[in-house]
Specification:
The complex is a heterodimer.
Chain A lengths: L19 H7 L4 H21 L2 H17 L8 H18 L1 H13 L7 H20 L2 H11 L4 H8 L3 H19 L5
Helix pairs in contact in A: 2-3, 2-4, 2-7, 3-4, 4-7, 4-8, 7-8, 7-9, 8-9
Chain B lengths: L4 H9 L6 H9 L1 H21 L9 H12 L24 H7 L3 H6 L9 E4 L3 E7 L1 H8 L5 E4 L6 E4 L1 H8 L17 E6 L2 E7 L1 H10 L9 H4 L2 E6 L2 E6 L3 H7 L9 E7 L2 E4 L4 H9 L6 H9 L6 E7 L3 E8 L2 E8 L5 E7 L2 E7 L3 H11 L1
Parallel strand pairs in B: 2-11
Antiparallel strand pairs in B: 1-10, 3-6, 4-5, 5-8, 6-7, 7-10, 8-9, 9-15, 12-13, 13-14, 14-15
Classes of the chains: A mainly alpha, B alpha+beta.
Chain lengths: 189, 373
């Protein structure tokens, strides 16, 4: 939604507190909801880079938010970084799971990627299959850094998620990209 | 000495992250330029390989409803009464002081915008703070910059009481534990969180033109990389640690000052900005050149230096004066309220910006700040 921007919204006189019912009617968000709203698209994007499938990426995103919510008795120090790392890790586990893989292949068979040209669609699906397979074979750390960076995180955010220094992210990313390309090799893409 | 592969790889995505020495080396060294070209080509191939064809539009509301249903909690409330949030919830506009702290990026929001989506480069990662005196008229003129494009996602500044652990989880900041408090201030704090958000700004030449015409002014030419840019500003959630004062009550009571003996510590990760094209300096130059932006304010903002690393703190001139102070070795600002309401000290340590404010003397807020370190 687009709205007209009033610059220093923060500098305003206080207003009276609304009741919880009024808040919900008015659509006000709780901090958890605010976190969800700001991070959900990025969590989906990270998982999608590994899974190659938006629907399955949303399944993973739902799972990691649920896990975070259930950790309320053992809070994490940086909720965003935790979500990012969990998204990459969970997506990787999903493609490493034979059961999930079989399920996914069925889904692809039933719901091929959009496109007017069946040959193009088939080639795109084959590329995704090869990439997923390669991501499952490279070192988990490589797959994670690829998903996090190519999922849209800044280097500082990737560093937070992986618990490394930001100056190390470029090196990790370069190695991971080289490893992925080597793993895919001469596969017809 | 040539640049490492890691440094060259980062320069592909975040060119402004290189320091001046490395940037100059890259510009001058043909060998490193060849290497960075090869690294860029590899990176682009990997990007194409793992890109997803699906629509980038995600229905977050529907996703949240789905999560609610999995949590088996009716309505919009995901945590029930005993989870992330305790029963007592409050919302309201915070006081002018805490608003000033939490909204410290207000001017930054106007100048840059931020976030992290694919293709974005980081253009604003502040490492220092600087005061900018603003008047009511300045604020009004800056509001007019909204006419230059579309803005969405401005956070609503919801204030919610949480536990210490929840505050840490939601803000990513360890709640400060001051070893010194002014006499008469209770030593047990309460915790609230003010939600942050991601503000997105997209330039729109036709809107800017229309706004200029309404004002009878001529729009300066909009550079192509400005027009094509989408900017995002991530404003992290802020932790509010209150001693001897109920912030929620203060807000709900409609008072605008810290009456009686009270002290509040605010801490938040620094905001940061990204852009799909233009740099922070280009955006600043363009916006401050617009008709209607007061020359004094533009000069003041230009004078604080590199807009990619300095966070302007707007300080109403009628309200306060600011002076540079040192807090445990870190550069900070001490703001004395000329109306006698209280004092505020603001400083940055690592990736966190802190503020201590209260109805106490400047020396006392500085002592508390020093004891946090």
């Amino acid at each position: 939604m687009t709205e007209t921007y009033a610059a220093p919204r923060a500098i305003r006189p206080p207003v009276r507190t609304a009741s919880q019912t009024q808040l919900e009617t008015a659509g006000q968000r709780t901090p958890f909801e605010a976190l969800f709203e700001s991070e959900y698209p990025r969590v989906v994007a990270i998982a999608a880079r590994i899974l190659g499938d938006r629907g399955e990426a949303e399944d993973v995103a739902q799972d990691v938010f649920l896990q975070l919510h259930r950790r309320r008795d053992a809070p994490v120090p940086n909720a965003s970084a935790w979500l990012h790392a969990a998204a990459a890790h969970s997506a990787l586990n999903a493609i490493r799971s034979r059961r999930r893989r079989a399920s996914r292949e069925l889904r692809w068979a039933a719901d091929p990627p959009p496109g007017n040209d069946p040959a193009e669609a088939a080639a795109a699906a084959e590329t995704r299959r090869l990439v997923r397979s390669a991501l499952a074979r490279v070192r988990p750390r490589h797959a994670e850094v690829l998903a996090l960076r190519h999922g849209g995180l800044s280097y500082a955010e990737v560093a937070d998620a992986l618990g490394v220094r930001v100056s190390h992210v470029g090196t990790m990313l370069r190695r991971a990209e080289t490893a992925l390309r080597k793993e895919i090799g001469d596969a017809p893409l | 000495m040539h640049l490492s592969d890691g440094t060259l790889r980062r320069s592909v995505d975040e060119p402004f992250a290189l320091d001046a020495v490395r940037r100059r080396h890259l510009e001058a060294c043909s060998q490193c330029r060849q290497r960075v070209d090869a690294i860029r080509t590899d990176s682009e191939r990997v990007t194409a390989l793992i890109a997803t064809a699906a629509s980038p539009v995600i229905d977050t509301d529907a996703a949240l409803r789905r999560l609610h249903s999995r949590l088996r909690v009716p309505g919009r409330q995901p945590a029930g009464g005993a989870g992330w949030l305790r029963d007592r919830r409050r919302r309201g506009r915070v006081t002018r002081w805490s608003a000033a702290v939490v909204g410290a990026a207000s001017v930054g929001v106007v100048l840059v915008g931020a976030g992290a989506a694919q293709g974005f480069i980081t253009i604003f990662q502040p490492r220092q703070v600087a005061p900018v005196a603003v008047t009511e008229a300045d604020i009004s003129s800056l509001q007019g910059l909204a006419s230059y494009g579309d803005v969405s996602g401005v956070p609503s500044l919801t204030l919610t009481q949480v536990t210490r652990g929840q505050a840490q989880a939601l803000t990513g900041v360890t709640p400060p534990s001051p070893s010194t408090l002014p006499s008469g201030i209770p030593s047990t704090p309460t915790y609230d969180v003010i939600n942050g958000g991601t503000v997105t700004f997209t330039f729109d030449r036709s809107k800017a033109q229309a706004a200029a015409e309404r004002d009878g002014a001529t729009l300066p030419p909009m550079p192509a990389n400005i027009e094509a840019s989408t900017l995002q500003l991530i404003i992290p959630s802020a932790l509010v640690e209150s001693y001897g004062i109920d912030i929620g009550q203060l807000v709900s009571g409609g008072t605008s000052s810290l009456d009686g003996q009270g002290l509040v510590i605010v801490a938040a990760l620094l905001p940061r900005a990204t852009s799909t094209g233009a740099s922070a300096a280009q955006v600043e130059d363009y916006l401050l050149a617009q008709p209607g932006v007061p020359a004094d304010l533009a000069a003041e903002l230009h004078a604080i230096g590199n807009p990619s690393s300095t966070l302007p703190i707007p300080i109403p001139v009628s309200l306060a004066s600011a002076q540079a102070v040192s807090v445990d070795g870190a550069a900070g600002l001490l703001i004395g309220d000329q109306t006698g309401v209280g004092s505020l000290v603001l400083w940055q340590h690592g990736r966190v910006v802190y503020a201590v404010l209260g109805s106490v003397s400047s020396g006392e807020v500085l002592d508390v700040a020093e004891s946090i370190g």
